[in-house]
Amino acid sequence: MIKDLFSVTTTTLIACAALPPKPAAAAQDSAANQYMHQADFDQLVARFEDPARAEWQKPEKTIASLGPLDGKTVADIGTGTGYFAFPIAKQAAKVIAIDIDQRFLDYIDQKKQTQKIGGNIETRLTAPDSPGLKVREADMVLIVDTYHHIEGRVEYLEKLKKCLRKDGVLVIIDFKKVKTPPGPPVEIRLAEEQVKSELKSAGFTIVSTDREMLPYQYIIKAR
Predict the structure, then answer these.
(1) Burial readout 125-161 (b: 16 or more C-beta within 10 A, e: otherwise)
(2) pLDDT per position in the chain (223 positions), as tens?
(3) Which of 127, 147, 210, 218 sits a CA distance of 20 to 30 A from 192?
(4) 63 within 8 A of 173, measured Cβ to Cβ
(5) Residues 155, 129, 147, 173, CA torsion sign
(6) How many domains would you assign to the chain?
(7) How far is the C-alpha of 143 from the C-alpha of 167, rounded, in Å?
(8) CATH of the domain at 93
C-alpha cells in the first residue's frame, strides 16, 4: 500500500512540475505561435510594451479586478515582457514569470537588474505542454493573451489544476472571437464558450465571466 501511495504521489508531482524545455521549433507548432513569430523579437517587445496598449488592456483596472494579492504567489504564464508581472509584483509576495521563449525571460531579468525592480519575480522557462509549476505552488495563475497559443488545452488545464493551492484561482484573459484592432486573426482566437467548456472538461468550476470591462477581451475566472 505504501509503495502504491508513493507511486501516485510521484506521478502527481511529475505531472505538475516543470518539464525540460523543447527545442525552439516546438514552441512554434501552434497556428497562434506561427502567427506571432512572423515578427522578430524586437517587434514583439515593441508591440507588448506599446504605451497605447494600456488604453485597451487597462492593466491597473485588470489587476484590481484580481482581488487582494498580499501574501500570494501569482504565476504569470506566457509572461512575455512581464507586462503584468512587474506591476503585480508590487502587490504579491511572489510572481513566477513563465514563458517558453528564453528571450522574454532574459528581457525580464535584464529589466530587473537595470531598473532595480521586481526583486520578487522569478523567471522560469517551460515546455509548450507544461504549465511549469510544482504541485500547489500558486495561489493564482494568470494567462493573458496566451491561452489560444496552447495545444492540447484540456490536458494542459488538468496539469495546471494540480498546481493551484486550496481556493486558488485561474484567470484567463483572451481576445474575443471577433475582429478587433489589436490581436491575432479571428480564425485562431477562441470563443469564450469554448474556453469555459474546456475548463469544465478539465475539472474547473467557472467563478465569473466578464465581457464588459475590457473592450477587446473577456476575463474568465475559474477554480
Answers:
(1) bbbbbbbbbeeebbbbbbbbbbbbbbeebeebbbbbb
(2) 433 433 434 444 444 544 444 434 344 466 656 666 578 999 999 999 999 999 999 999 999 999 999 999 999 999 999 999 999 999 999 999 999 999 999 999 999 999 999 999 999 999 999 999 999 999 999 999 999 999 999 999 999 999 999 999 999 999 999 999 999 999 999 999 999 999 999 999 999 999 999 999 999 999 9
(3) 127
(4) no
(5) positive
(6) 1
(7) 17
(8) 3.40.50.150
